[in-house]
Structures are given as structure tokens and as C-alpha cells.
Hints:
The complex is a heterodimer. By secondary structure, chain A is α+β, with helices and mostly antiparallel strands.
Amino acid sequence: MVEFNQGYFxxxxxxxxxxxxxANKELPSVQLQSFISKNAYNSLQKEISKxxxxxxxxVLHHRYARAELPVKLQKEFVSKELVSxxxxxxxxxxxxxxxxxxxxxxxxxxxxxxxxxxxxxxxxDLSSDWDDSFGGSIVYVDGSGEYTKIPSQANxxxxxxxxxxxxxxxxxxxxxxxxxxxVFLIATI
Amino acid sequence: xTNPRIDEWVDSxxxxxxxxxxxxxxxxxxxxxxxxxxxxxxxxxxAVALLNALAEEEFTEKESDLFKLxxxxxxxxxxxxxxxxxxxxxxxxxxxxxxxxxTGITTKAGEIDCNGSMYQDxxxxxxxxxxxxxRKIAYMYYLSTMKPxxxxxxxxxxxxxxxxxxxxxxxxxxFNSFTFFKVLPISFHEVQEVVAQKQRISINGWFHG
Lengths: 189, 209
């Protein structure tokens, strides 16, 4: 079982998170630190390191590697507890998580011919030993060109609502990353 | 400003009609789409003077999902006489004639974009096609030389069903070279990341038609 930080699951805290999430009218979002226990995080990292990532290169959209989580890990992470927690904030049920791995030359750009529809992004960050100066940050941009860069934060859960006109991209990862890799799990709703 | 004489700027080699014929054939048969790299393009002393003049221009950092680089405003408003004159050369009827002789593409004299760009360590421009109404030819006049160890090549993509597939050509900037390509729905290209403590400097833009 993935041991979630129970501090976030109390009624009072959940109410606080909901308020915080809705506070930013343009980009409702919340980033919850230390979302799972330290032991669970370390175990999860071990499991992730065993995944076989497959490179994806869609020139006008993205370049990174992706892996699907093994069924056991999927069930453990996407538990009733987590589904219910996220649903209470977003009103949506997550179905599964995929792992995205960034390394030098990775990117995701906004494809004007294939824009993302409004929706929610649920991202669990596993970026230990990552410096944001390497790039790889997730950035949201609204119709007026306002940018919101989400800093990488190991063991954090990010919930973002993309309203109409909001798009996201992943900053190009530069050569200073060398052999380092950034991994996060992204939910399908 | 009086119209500058382009033969006082561009190397005389490029006015030879046989050279122009050869270049045109080369341009039209290039893969993955028509492009050329003309070396030693301007009179050498002008190239050096342009580089010095460019150092006085104001560059602003530009960053988006697609790029990270330093850029000047369009030189239509530059106070620097030499840079203004270079822009006037590029925008002249004579230059449009020269470009026609080499590419077979008709452009409208006076209708150009022209600014300075500088890519430094970790700067880049991700894949795109440059397509915007009126753009006929994209050009870059390079004022620095980059080697493979420095990064920063202009990379051209092959395409299939009007979608880019993979990089099939890398053109490394060379001081005083003039590189250009035909703007097409398939002219997918990128500037690959600069991976050295070096500045990749150009005056670049588009010829419209």
C-alpha cells in the first residue's frame, strides 16, 4: 500500500485545500508537499527505476520517454483513498497514472493545431536531485500570455485546473542536466 | 538615406551569372527543402564592422515554450547607420533581383523583417515551420562561427504527410555566411541548443512576397 500523508486527508485540511485550490481564479491549483510517507516515496522511486521507458518523439509536440505503471503499483497508488481525495477537490475520478521521464533535449510545446481542451492535470512529482535551471518545469500559459511556472518538488502532488484558453508546456531540458532525469506521474481522468 | 549599392557590400563572386545559375540549381535540388549557405558573403571589413555595430544594439531575453534567446527589435528603427544600411541593402530592389537569380523566388523589395539574434549557452529554438502569410524566404546572416562541439546548428527536418520526421541536415553558422531557405509548409527546422560558453550571433528575418 502507498502510505499517503494522512495530514491531508482530514476533513478540516481537505476544506483548506479546496479553498486554496479555488483561490486562484485564473489557474485553480494546489501543490501538496510530502504527499506520501518517506518510506513509501523511497519504495516508489525503486519501482520507478525498474520501469522500461519508451522514447516518444512527436516533433511539433513533445520529446520525452513514457512508461506505464505495473498493475500492482497502479492499484496501490490509484487507491480508493486517492481517487476519493482528488475527486473531492476536482469532481473528477482519476483512472490511471503514467510515468513521464525527462532528460536533456526533452520538451513539450504548445501545438496550435492540437490545443488541449480544458480539464485537470494531476501530477505526482518524483524529481529528486533536479535543479530547475536544467529546464523541465511545467508551465501554464493563459490567453493573455501570463506564465505560471510550477517548480519541481520531489514527493509533491500537483492539481491544476486548465480553464478555457489555458495551455501547458514543459520547458526544454538543457545540456546542464547531463545524465540526470526527471520523472513524474501524470493521471488520466 | 540614399539607396546603398549592393555591389559595395556583397562579394563580387555572387554577381557572376554562371555562379548564380549554379547556385540556383543547387538551391532547387537541396533536400529536405530548398536552402543555401553562401560563404564569405559580404566584404570582410563590412562583416567585422557589422559585428561591432551589433554589439551596441540592445538585446532582450525572449523565452517561450518554443525558444530561449536574446533578440533586438526590428532594425527598421535602429539608430546605427551601418546596420540601417545593411537592412536597406537586404530590402533593396537589387538584392531582390539577386535573390531571384539564385532562388527563382520573387520577393517584394522593401518588405522584409530584419533583427539581431544571439543564442548563448543553453539557448535554443524548437521545431517549427516559419509559415506566416507573405513569408517567402527565411534568412540568417551569421556573425559567429559554431563548431559541432559548440552546438547551435540550424537543423532541417525531413517530412512525411506534411509532418516533420527527423533531422536530416545540420548547418553550422559560419562567420560572414548568408544562409536562407524557402518557406514552405514543410520547411520544418530548429536551432539546436548552444552547449558551449559561446555566442551564436546573426542578423536574420524573412523576405516577403
